[in-house]
Amino acid sequence: MTYKLIIEPGRAERGYWLDLWRYRELFQALAWRDISVRYKQTVIGVAWALIRPFLTMIIFTIVFGKIARLPSDGTVPYAVMVFAGMLPWTFFATALADASNSLLRDANLITKAYFPRLVIPVAAEMAAFVDFVITFVLLAGLMIWYRFFPTWHILLLPGFVAMALAASLGLGLWVTALNVKYRDFRYVVPFIVQVGLYASPVGFSSAVVPDAWRLVYSLNPLVGVIDGFRWCLLAGQSQLYVPGFLLSFAVTLFFLWLGLRQFRRTEKSFADLI
Asked: Cα–Cα distance between 35 and 47 in angstroms, integer?
């Protein structure tokens, strides 16, 4: 089926969300390009998606579990608890980095053709999702090694994956819109990732946070995501702090709205600024 595109005042605004569906083949092409570029003609290839979280898990297990002697959740092996937190964090950090630089990388495409620019950062996050699937396989192998298996809670895991995607997309859209106009914003993302790794309960359980601070701590949207992942994967040993989760979910929705709003407000000027 072919579509006739009529350029007229206000048309792009009225049909923007419908155009996202019409340009789904472009989305698929960009997503496949990003995935193939990441793994094609690389020395380490897929192994990099495994080595990075695995080494981080070992370091956090030694530092927080052996030296600091922080407790795990219930009877969960500390390494499994850490890796269950590394899984959503690595997905979030990779997706955020890919989305925030996507417009500058595809500058030539933006200046030559009309399409909803939202396609580019969303497609960029699909490569991070492939990394997530690969890392999930490693977590499954680790749980088999420790003979620790999830329960029915794992059926709810797709919901928390969607929450992690929304958190990375919201912040990524906001940063990439600013990055087009102010190029020094590309230095902000590595700083956010570096600080967020230690500000989020990746190497430790959020249960060690004092009760008086847990709600404030949950203003970090990754707290709800990581706690949700552990609740789904760790056979109910990791308890989900419901008020904190609801707050993290609300903050995630706020950043998603803020990112979409900032992106849509500045989208018309992308071709001129890039």
From this structure: 14
Distance CA(251)–CA(274), nearest Å, equals 30
Among the listed ranges 123-132, 241-250, 265-274, which one has the minimum average pLDDT value?
Answer: 265-274
Burial code of 193-227, b = ≥16 C-beta within 10 A, e = fewer?
eeebbeebbbbbbbbebeeeebeebbebbbbbbbb
Closest CA to 171 of 121, 226, 132: 121
- Alpha-carbon Rg for the chain, nearest whole angstrom, is 20
What is d(CA 233, CA 149) in angstroms, rounded to the nearest whole number?
A: 8
Q: Is residue 102 within a helix (H) or strand (E), and if so which, with residue range? A: helix 102-105
Nearest by Cα to 132 from 76, 101, 93: 93
Q: What DSSP state is assigned to residue 51? A: H
CA-to-CA distance for 200 and 198, rounded, in angstroms? 5
Nearest Cα neighbor of 152 from 246, 244, 226, 231 is: 231
Name the token pair of 48. 């990099």
pLDDT tens, residue by residue, 213-232:
999 999 999 999 999 999 99
